[in-house]
Amino acid sequence: MELNKCSRCGAFYTTSNNVCPNCVPKDNCDQLTLKNFLAENEMPASMEALSADTGISVKNLNRYLADSDINICL
Ligand SMILES: [Zn+2]
Asked: How many domains does one find in the chain?
């Protein structure tokens, strides 16, 4: 059994998600926020600006943009 460390809260978990079961709803919510934001707004010039506009941490943004199915046209 492999232990994973949650990217959001640091808890250890054994499911195959990117985050622990407690954080899955928060992750989904943040990804939806990001998708909706990008559907209605221009991509900000920097991750910091995107973070400030969406309220999602830069760390989480990088994770979503790297391994999610969110398509972003820069
Ligand atoms: Zn977590």
From this structure: 1
